[in-house]
Amino acid sequence: MRYLVYSLLLVGLFLQNTFAQVIKPISWESSILEENLEVGDTATLSFRAEIDENWYLYSSDFDPDLGPMLTEFDFEEDDSYQLVDSIIPINPSKGYDEIWEGDYTYFKGKGEFQQKVIIKEIPFKIETSNSYQVCSDVDGKCIPFSDDFSFGEKTKSATSSSESDQKEKEEASTDKSEKEGKKKLIDLKQKDSNSPYSLLAFMLVAFLAGLAALLTPCVFPMIPMTVTFFTGKAKNRAGAIRQAVIYGLSIIIIYVVAGTIIAVINGPEFANWLSTHWIPNVFFFLVFFIFALSFLGLFEINLPSSFVNRVDAKADKGGLGGVFFMAFTLVLVSFSCTGPIVGSILVESAGGMVIKPLLGMFAFSLAFAIPFTLFAIFPEWLNSLPKSGGWLNSVKVVLGFLELALGLKFLSIADQVYHWGILDRDIYLVLWIVIFAMLGLYLLGKLRLPGDSPIEKLSVGRLMLSLVTFSFVLYMIPGLFGAPLKALSGYLPPMSSHDFDLPTLIRENSGGSGAISSEDQLCEEPKYGDMLHFPHGIKGYFDYEQALDCAKEQGKPIFVDFTGHGCVNCREMEARVWSDPKVLSRLKNDYVMLALYVDEKTELPENDWYTSEYDGKVKKSIGKQNADFQITRFNNNAQPYYVLLDTNGELLIEPIAYERSISKFVDFLDEGKEKFEAKNKP
Where is the segment annotated Disordered (predicted)? Predict the structure, then answer.
């Protein structure tokens, strides 16, 4: 099994490196510089590039035979305009290439190209595409790209004037209900649906997400179920391989068909329901609890005899019914935990898209199916090994303990979303400490369960596993007193649910100069503050309009945290990144904090309901409105997702998502603050 884990890690590293090569390190904006254009006027088309750090863009004014790929623009002919000379790069830098032995020009950070055209008709239509090459300073890799641009049926002056008037009206208006109804999109410099990145890159991202999903707490425990189901099912090696392949194909077919249907009909909202609603989460908790008891030896789980007889009757044909049933069970259970990941793929269905979600779901399920297909073949190899007493039963028991512990995650999600208060962080930790302590005793042979053989000598392997288990138990014990336990931050309930949080008590009762009072951070009592909380003593809001009003009053930018009760990566970011003093001081002092929970089920008063422009559905709860806000404003459905806004709700810099580099997160916050101060200079 460890060899398969090593293989998965190597594949993940390979795909991570591949993914790094296909992410687009550049974005483009285009505009017309002149206003009030008339027939016969000369217009200047501007193409501006934002280039990521450690990357540079080759320009268009050096010897094309030198070697690097020039930046070229190809204009489609049209009677409404006429080109004047060729495109001009604006103030590029110069360099010398030792390999090609020649001078070249390039842009770093920002770049601009301009093209003069004569307007021959009003309205006019100008369409062009470019091809170019960006290279990395770090590892020397160079990647070619292309983009499309269109200057549509109206002149820039008319469009700009209309947008300017509209913006002034919106800023002058204080009617909050009118603002909520508009849900105007913010320009994020994002490409259209055909060019955020190539379909191949999108599939690679989805494939990598499928590998990552294998490490979620509701997918890993399905491995022993797979092993148990396929052990002894085939009469020979060929039969085992055939069943395994059918099993893998069934997973892919189920995911692609179900995911595509959801994308077309429901979009990401259904995935959110499945991953956060109490009904599926409690159901899956009970499923894992029952399977854990079965692995521990309380009883055997058998399919109904009539069903078994029908499956046995099809054994010679490959047992398709049983194999498909097992694949369907895997997809159903795992979909709850992978809902946020799948939701990011399904959000591509906005606007009626089908092909892209279909390809994304195929790539995701392919990565998801490959390891389980290997495990489906693996039982035959297990059966060929020499039997050594009850070692195989010991494996089942160990996995049973793990199922018992990991299954609590489902109940925890429902508990957090619905604020039941039955599985707070300290209770969760107590249960894990007891479960893993009993697992350690079992590995030492101090506990015997049904099916176990007597242990005459303790093997080195069991001794080492018990040492690891008891070390893990000791690691968790300080968490009962408020230790952050960063390694488990994604699996544990938030610190706000802890009854005895010693660091918070010290912080709140200390009179040190470093303490920041609520009055210093908040303009008014936050809505929903009785049930929603920030970590690390951060004070903030959970309502967009309230945060916007406070930002205007304090003259600070807004830090928007799109998060969720069941978001594993959100808890990891809070524990590993937000807790750093450099990050924490900036969050507390430089920004008005806003956390928008996309899975909060609290229903709002009827006069706050509205019909979404995105899917035409009425949004009644806090979570549904926050999720709709994220999708419509930022074309994104992943959590965590961090956005920096000014006091008018306008974007300051490009948002970021899961970023565990503290230095990069600090740079993100500092850049946002600098942009805000630059915009608000007197």
Answer: 154-178
Q: Which of 378, 499, 381 is nearest to 429 (CA)?
A: 499
For the stretch 147-191, pLDDT in tens is 888 886 543 333 333 344 444 444 444 344 334 433 333 333 333
CB 576 within 8 Å of CB 660: yes
Instruction: Answer yes or no: are the C-beta atoms of 56 and 71 closer than 8 Å.
Output: no
- Which tokens sit at 350? 């906005």
Q: What is the pLDDT of residues 514-567, one digit of tens each?
A: 444 444 568 999 999 888 889 888 999 999 999 999 999 999 999 999 998 877
Any idea which residue has 């100008």 for tokens?
Answer: 126
CA 50/CA 651 separation, integer angstroms: 15
- Cα dihedral: 325, 326, 329, 333 (round 10): -170
Question: What tokens were used for 334?
Answer: 């795992």
Instruction: Find the helix packing angle between 425-443 and 408-418, rounded to 10°.
Output: 180
Q: What is the 3-state secondary structure of 486-528?
A: HHHCCCCCCHHHCCCCHHHHHHHHCCCCCCCCHHHHCCCCCCC
DSSP H or E segment with residue 64: none
If phi > 0 it is left, if psi is from -120 to 50 it is alpha, else beta; for residue 132 that is beta
